Amino acid sequence: MPQVYAMNGGNGPQSYNQNSSFQRGAVEVAKELIKEEIDKELDVKQLSSTSVHPFRIADFGCSTGPNTFVAMKVIREALEEKLRKEGLASEVPEFQVFFNDHISNDFNTLFASLPQERHYLAAGVPGDFHKVLLPKASLHFAHSSCSLHWLSDVPKEVTDNTSPAWNKGKIHYGGAKKEVLEVYASQFAKDLESFLNARAHELVDGGLMALVIPAVLDAIRESQTTIVTEKELEVLGYCLMDLAKKVRFH
Ligand SMILES: C[S@@+](CC[C@H](N)C(=O)[O-])C[C@H]1O[C@@H](n2cnc3c(N)ncnc32)[C@H](O)[C@@H]1O
Question: Where on the tree of life does the source sit, at the highest rank (predicted)?
């Protein structure tokens, strides 16, 4: 079983709640794109004639908030707007939002901070989003932001000093050999495929999916794109390893 680490819970100074303005930026940037795509791509007439209410949205890797609430509001409002535009204002359905994250996520903080004025029913769906979490053909809109780059496991080759992809104990692949990059990329491909297969099972015919994933253009060296430098990551890596050794020996 790979170990699973959720974000820091609660509302304190070290919590994800108080330290997620970077990820909030991604949600803000995606807003207009999501609105445009719902307007362009969603066949609400077909959906309202073939599927049963309520209209179901899921956020995969929602953490403890508050960014997920911003994203869910944008999606719900865009769907409502689309229905009005298509002359289906009288048929605006109930909305149900499924908040998904690892079972160790602080769902108490998430649910305690649900916005009062939210116009949707809320439910928690704990578990690994690489697996099926919802019934077949039950979901209308799948959303995930800043979560899909989390690998389900560390590729074993990077910690094996007999492998050509050994990463010499580093915590990051920036500036590493191509073999290291390749095993991380192959783990990502496997994880993404599992995620997409699970969503293919859950989404209704004609449903939509919005995935916001931090990415790197091929033309840019990955070491030039991180928000911290390669050297800083190396120092951070050594500190973490020293810390881990101390914890193990005490
Ligand atoms: C950086 S946070 C992003 C949270 C939120 N989407 C946002 O934009 O603020 C990434 C979240 O993905 C969750 N996550 C990572 N892998 C997951 C998995 N396999 N299944 C469910 N949640 C996962 C983590 O627990 C974490 O809460």
Answer: Eukaryota
